[in-house]
Amino acid sequence: MERKLIALDIDGTLLSSQRKPLESTMKALKALREAGHLVTIATGRSRLLAGDVIHQLGCTNYIICNGSAGFLDHEQVYKHTLDREALTRMIDFATEREIDIMLFGLDSFGRVTDFDKEKVRNAMSSFGQQAPEYEPDYFSQHEVYQGCAFYDQSMDEEFEAAFPEFRLVRWHENSVDIIPNPGSKAQTILALAKKVGIKPENIVTFGDGNNDIEMLNLAGTGVAMGNAANHVKDAANLVTDTNDQDGIYKALRQLELVH
To answer: Contact 3/198 with Cβ under 8 angstroms?
Structure first.
C-alpha cells in the first residue's frame, strides 16, 4: 500500500461531544503511524489552543490556524501570516462598528477591541475556551497568523467586500475566522504532502465544519463526520458515523487502513 497522508480536524472530528478523543480514535491513529502513514492534525485552532490535543494524541505533525502554519516533526515548514496593513484597516473598520476582533499568534492570542466580551465569551465557550483579555497592543507585539471577528451573518457581505485580502470563514453564528486569501487547511495539506512526496490522491481528510470543505474536496478521499451539516457532507466522498460513535475508526476500517 502506498503511503497516505491522513489529516484530521479537531473540534467535532477528533474530539467527541465531551471534548476528548475516543479510545477507538487513539488506537486507530497509533495503527496508522505504525503502518508508516503520515498523520496530521488540521485545525482552526492556534498551537496554544491545540497543544493539549496534539500532546494527548502524540501528534508531531500539525496544521494550525486554518492552514496559516504547518509543522512536520514539530518543525515549522509552512508560514502565511496576515497582511498587517489590511489588518490595521480591518481593526479600524470593526472599531467604527463596535465589533470585537481577536488575533492569534502561534502560542498566544489577544482581544484588540473591547465592546461585547459576552459575545466573545459565548463563541469561545462553544469549543471549551475562555475569552482572552483585552490587549490593545497585541497586534504591534506579535506576528498574526489568524484572527476572529465577532459579528453575525447580516454583516458578512459588508466585511467580505471591504477585505478581499482575507478569507472570512464562519464557524459560529457570531464569529468568523480571518485567514489570508488565498489560504486554507487544504493548501497547507497539499504543501506538506508535496514536501514528503505523497501524491494528492493518497491524501485522506476528516472534517465536520465549514473550514473543512476545501480539504474534503481536494483529498483523494474526503470523509465527513456524521455530525457534519449536509452541505459539508456534500463535499465528501464518504460520510462516516459521528464523533461520538467511532466515526474515524469506522471510516479508516472501511478504507482498509486499519483493522
So the answer is: yes
Taking CA atoms, 85 is separated from 44, 148, 241, in Å, by 23, 17, 44
Going from the N-terminus, what domains does the chain have, and what CATH number goes with each?
Answer: 3-78+181-253 (3.40.50.1000), 82-178 (3.30.1240.10)
What per-residue string of b and e applies to 152-175 under the rule 16 or more CB within 10 Å gives b?
eeeeeeebeeebeebbbbbbbebb
pLDDT at 125: 87
- Which of 9, 177, 212, 246 is an active site residue? 9
- Mean pLDDT split into 10-residue runs, the chain, 259 residues: 96 96 98 98 95 95 97 97 96 97 95 91 83 90 96 96 95 92 94 98 97 96 98 98 99 97
Question: Which of 99, 194, 187 shows the shortest CA–CA distance to 150?
Answer: 99
15 contacts: CB under 8 Å, gap ≥ 6 = 21, 53, 243
Handedness of CA 166, 150, 159, 96 (dihedral sign): negative
CA 69 to chain centroid? 11
pTM (whole model) above 0.85? yes
CA angle 19, 22, 25 (to 5 degrees): 125
pLDDT score recorded for residue 96? 97
Grid coordinates standing for 88? 490595521
Dihedrals phi, psi of 176, to nearest 5 degrees: -125, 150
Does 9 participate in catalysis according to the annotation? yes
**What are the start-end ranges of the E strands in 45-114?**
62-64, 69-72, 75-79, 100-104, 109-111
